[in-house]
Write a structure and sequence with these properties.
With 717 residues, the protein is α/β, with parallel strands linked by helices. It folds into three domains: 25-97 and 282-314 and 375-461, 3-Layer(aba) Sandwich (Rossmann fold), CATH 3.40.50.300; 105-155 and 175-268, Orthogonal Bundle (PCRA, domain 4), CATH 1.10.486; 507-716, Lambda Exonuclease, Chain A, CATH 3.90.320.10. It is built from 27 helices and 18 strands. The strands form four sheets. Strands 5-6-4-7-11-1-12 form a seven-stranded parallel sheet, with helices on both faces. The radius of gyration is 34 Å and the shape is globular. Residues 281-285 and 516-531 have low confidence and may be disordered.
Length: 717
């Protein structure tokens, strides 16, 4: 940069060089592509990303190196307009991608079902939102189901009128809302697969509405995610990691705006949708787990990635400000285009021409600073894609070389219309720019003195597919073969031999498997005082304390004989860090925590090499194991023994030892005996163990235990 362009004079100390001090040397690549289309650029970058990951290209990891991963790669573009082309190119190769595009989260197709459900929880008498929620992936109703629901409701309503003798000539029954139709089916008492499906939906919706009365918004959203499996469903869709991240961002927005209840949350959602922003759209945070990131250069300021692609370098600078009828400048005033007294065409005044030149220079200066940002985001590898720009009538390399050979490089820079123009000129005078100098006619050019190494390649255009000289003649119609017709009819009459699998869900949560019939409510009994807590809430307080407790500090306090003080101090720490609400923490039963610290379960925790808390998993398990956990017979389980089901869950504690694993689960419910706990939770722990074995292979779970906070002892499962 110079004071004339870029507004900053960078000396030798700020010169861009490849690599960094030390033994590890990064690399820079510049690849010249045959054309300037976004599709060509995107396809080449997607192919290069695939090659880097497949070949295990090394990137730094502390003092050592490791193979590059998708999340290490970032594609920087000048504008968002071509994001879609790059997303499609990466997706076509099976590469997960996250486009940091600041889209309106409320308009995303995978967020709208959540919004519809929240609006129904607030007020179910909204037909459009209720239909959207029922038809969405969370509840699985079809269009035919809603038609059937309406028809069945209308028939029930007509029958009830006839029985009451309320039908009058010319009087039509009032149209019932969709929620009214649901209630009518629920109250009718008929038992069919369809009515059971409607009743199950009603029960789940009612539980969520009860929960919304007292639970915070983030807890409500988490319950929706867990009970419906929506996050897991998003994860298996195309670009699933991006969709899951959006769902989490939406939950964060709800947590911020839903403090005053579900109605206030719905109003905040409507306001954000109208404004086109949640106020926290796509917060810049670098890489998304498992995804190649696409973002604008502006958004990349302050971020770094191991591998950075700078693409779309042929995009022309926006010089529209230089074409306005009136040009204004904060320092140089105004410039006008005028029309002569006789004539139609307008002419530029000297002031206008001067200001147009000033605006153009300022635009190029800003673009040069932006290019500097893009070139300094890479930690290990910088990859540039530049179009050749070669046409039958023009050779940009020959033009640039002529300017450089004449010592007019500054003039060339001030005439540039894109990043590509600057990159071509800079690489022409680089010692490794031989392939480009040959394209320029091998002119004698003054090389820039630098020790940096840049790999420069020129990509050949792909040959056009040959088209047949003559269209083939249309074939004569062939009479139907009776034998073939009979074969087709037999094929269409085929019945699926594994029809029993239709009853096995493709994806379930462990909690729903083991407790299909149990319902959880946080509704507060009327007899409690304002600050009173239900047994469920007190159980939640105990569980939350143990989830976040500093076991090492509690163990040290136990050894020193100051356990009581340590428990109170830990409770206060959790309140201060907003891990637990103060009103919940105040009701914490410290005696049960003390009893836990003196138990065999706590001794196991202290002896473990590593303690993993709230370990979430989603994995494929044998369908036979799932059906067995649901109480199916051995015969039913054997019928699907070769099939897999996607299972998700969260394990309270996984204790990692050098040669094995141990699984512990806290339980706060008031089951009377050890046998009651084993009967209720042994299937759950068995499924947890299967999933954890798969994740930590070859280590195996050798011990499964249930710690009852009510009984105060560890029960081996």
């Amino acid at each position: 940069m110079t004071p004339q362009l870029g507004d900053t004079a960078y000396g030798d100390g700020q010169r861009l060089v490849c690599g960094a001090p030390g033994e590890y040397a990064g690399s820079v690549e510049a690849h010249f592509l045959p054309d300037d289309t976004a599709e060509t650029d995107a396809a080449w970058i997607a192919q290069r990303v695939e090659e880097l990951v497949k070949n295990g290209e090394p990137v730094r990891d502390g003092s050592s190196t490791r193979p590059v991963q998708y999340e290490d790669c970032c594609i920087l573009l000048a504008a968002r307009g071509d994001f879609l082309a790059y997303e499609e190119a990466l997706t076509a190769r099976g590469i997960p991608v996250y486009a940091d595009a600041r889209e309106n989260l409320m308009e995303a197709a995978h967020i709208r079902p959540l919004i519809s459900l929240l609006k129904v929880i607030d007020n179910p008498a909204q037909d459009i939102y209720l239909a959207a929620a029922m038809l969405g992936p969370m509840f699985g109703f079809t269009d035919d189901d809603l038609v059937r629901l309406r028809a069945q409701s209308a028939a029930m309503q007509k029958k009830a009128q006839e029985e009451q003798g309320a039908k009058e000539t010319g009087k039509r029954a009032s149209r019932m809302s969709l929620y009214g139709a649901v209630l009518q089916v629920v109250q009718n008492g008929d038992e069919t697969p369809f009515t059971r499906k409607v009743k199950d939906f009603y029960d789940r919706l009612t539980a969520l509405r009860r929960m919304a009365r007292s639970a915070p918004a983030e807890q409500l959203l988490e319950e929706i995610f867990v009970s419906t499996g929506y996050l897991a469903a998003l994860g298996v869709l195309e670009n699933g990691a991006h969709r899951r991240e959006d769902a989490r961002r939406f939950a964060a927005f709800c947590a911020q705006t839903g403090a005053n209840g579900i109605s206030a949350l719905v109003r905040a959602i409507d306001a954000a949708a109208q404004a086109g922003s949640t106020g926290q759209d796509t917060v810049p945070g670098g890489a998304r787990p498992g995804c190649v990131t696409i973002m604008t250069i502006h958004r990349s300021k302050g971020l770094q990635f191991p591998v950075v692609f700078v693409g779309d370098t042929a995009r022309h600078f926006n010089l529209s400000d230089t074409y306005q009828p009136v040009l204004l400048h904060r320092e140089y005033g105004a410039g006008l285009r005028l029309r002569p007294e006789q004539g139609e065409s307008m002419y530029k005044t000297a002031a206008y021409a001067a200001l147009a030149s000033v605006h153009a220079q300022e635009t190029r200066s800003e673009q040069m600073r932006l290019l500097y940002v893009a070139l300094t985001r890479a930690q290990d590898k910088l990859i540039l894609t530049v179009p050749l720009g070669m046409t039958k009538t023009g050779n940009p390399f020959a033009k640039a070389a002529a300017f450089l050979a004449a010592g007019a490089g500054e003039t060339l820079n001030q005439q540039a219309g894109s990043f590509a123009d600057w990159l071509r000129a800079a690489l022409l005078v680089h010692p490794f720019g031989g392939p480009l100098r040959r394209l320029a006619g091998d002119l004698e050019l003054p090389f820039v003195f630098t020790e940096s190494e840049i790999m420069v390649t020129v990509q050949e255009a792909q040959p056009e597919p040959e088209t047949p000289e003559q269209e083939p003649e249309a074939a004569e119609p062939v009479p139907a073969d009776p034998a073939l017709v009979a074969q087709l009819q037999e094929g269409f009459a085929w019945r699926y031999p594994a029809a029993k699998l239709a009853a096995v869900p493709a994806k379930v949560s462990v909690t729903s498997i083991v407790h299909k019939a149990e319902q959880t409510t946080l509704e507060r009994p009327a007899f409690l005082s304002k600050d009173g807590l239900t047994a469920a809430e007190m159980g939640t307080a105990l569980h939350a304390f143990l989830e976040h407790a500093d076991f090492a500090s509690l163990a040290a306090a136990k050894a020193a004989g100051t356990l009581e003080e340590a428990i109170l101090a830990e409770r206060q720490r959790q309140v201060d860090t907003q891990l637990v609400a103060p009103e919940i923490a105040e009701k914490l039963n410290a005696g049960r925590i003390r009893r836990f610290a003196e138990s065999e379960a706590f001794a196991k925790i202290c002896a473990a090499e590593k303690v993993l808390r709230e370990l979430a998993f989603i994995t494929a398990l044998p369908a036979s194991a799932v059906l067995t956990a649901q109480g199916a017979s051995a015969q039913e389980a054997a019928a699907v023994q070769d099939e897999q089901v996607l299972v998700q869950g969260i394990a309270d504690l996984v204790l990692v030892f050098p040669d094995h694993l141990e699984l512990l689960d806290y339980k706060t419910d008031r089951r009377k005996t050890e046998a009651d706990f084993l009967s209720a939770y042994r299937p759950q722990l068995n499924l947890y163990a299967l999933a954890i074995d798969k994740r930590f292979a070859p280590k195996k779970v050798t011990y499964k235990g249930i710690y009852s906070l009510e009984l105060g002892r560890l029960i081996e499962a």
